[in-house]
């Protein structure tokens, strides 16, 4: 038989058991295998050990808000790629790929909706979109969210999940830290509450600007929250870091976070906090 006719089938049969795509979810923390439907109903948290997985913005909003009350805003904003940046591939190509993956033009979904009949302005980072990095579009959408909250006198709620500023937009992305904080400052002058909910991970320029400036700062269990990563800090100071450094629990113990709340209880908890802060809707 000619070599070209020899079957390309693998010589060793895989003994790995393959389940239909998406039917089961394995927890990377406790290795429990859960029926995916139950996992989704539990808002992407492990039913056994409560490990919090990343959750897409639409799923997050569906669980957090009343029914189908969410109305997206500023959906069409897109980055102009101010520096025509190119590293391993052009920034414009990265944006297109992220859009294809997520269906969003950038790393945050913003809009308004009802929480226990109370109108709120709400935004959710999408970590799947270039690591939830903040460039000109994310900064603009957050600033507009705070402005709408101020004009309509509605509380603002933001769920963060971000690696920080977007390096492909250089100084323009760093400017978003100041811009968002200025808009937030105007909201605070009016005495309208801002609830910041930090999810895994909330780091870099996002942690170092509005994410830590909530009237109430909430974190999901186990979330990594900090500015520079632990490896960079360790190399810079030349010392070992304490156990659990930069986790939500460590920050709570040291007074940087007001509350740690399981994802499935966030809707009730934020509803109660707003009831206390601003009264009945
Ligand atoms: Zn688990």
Description:
With 281 residues, the chain is of the alpha/beta class. It folds into 2 domains: 33 residues, no CATH class; 223 residues, 2-enoyl-CoA Hydratase, Chain A, domain 1 (Alpha-Beta Complex), CATH 3.90.226.10. Helix content is 33%, strand content 18%. Strands 3, 4, 5, 6, 7, 8, 9 and 10 form an 8-stranded mixed sheet that branches. α6 links the parallel β7 and β8. α4 packs parallel to α5. The radius of gyration is 21 Å and the shape is globular. The N terminus is likely disordered. Bound molecules: zinc ion (ZN). Zinc ion (ZN) binds next to loops.
What proportion of the residues is helical, as a percent range? Answer: 25-40%
Range of strand content: 15-25%
Q: What does the oligomeric state look like here?
A: single chain
Order of helices and strands: EEHHEHEEHEHEHEEHHEH
Per-chain topology:
Layout: E1 24-26, E2 33-35, H1 36-41, H2 57-64, E3 71-73, H3 91-102, E4 108-115, E5 118-125, H4 136-152, E6 156-162, H5 170-189, E7 194-203, H6 204-207, E8 216-219, E9 225-226, H7 230-237, H8 248-253, E10 259-260, H9 266-278
The structure holds zinc ion (ZN).
Supply the key terms:
2-enoyl-CoA Hydratase, Chain A, domain 1; two-stranded antiparallel sheet; 10 strands; 9 helices; 33% helix; binds zinc ion; alpha/beta; eight-stranded mixed beta sheet; 281 residues; 2 domains
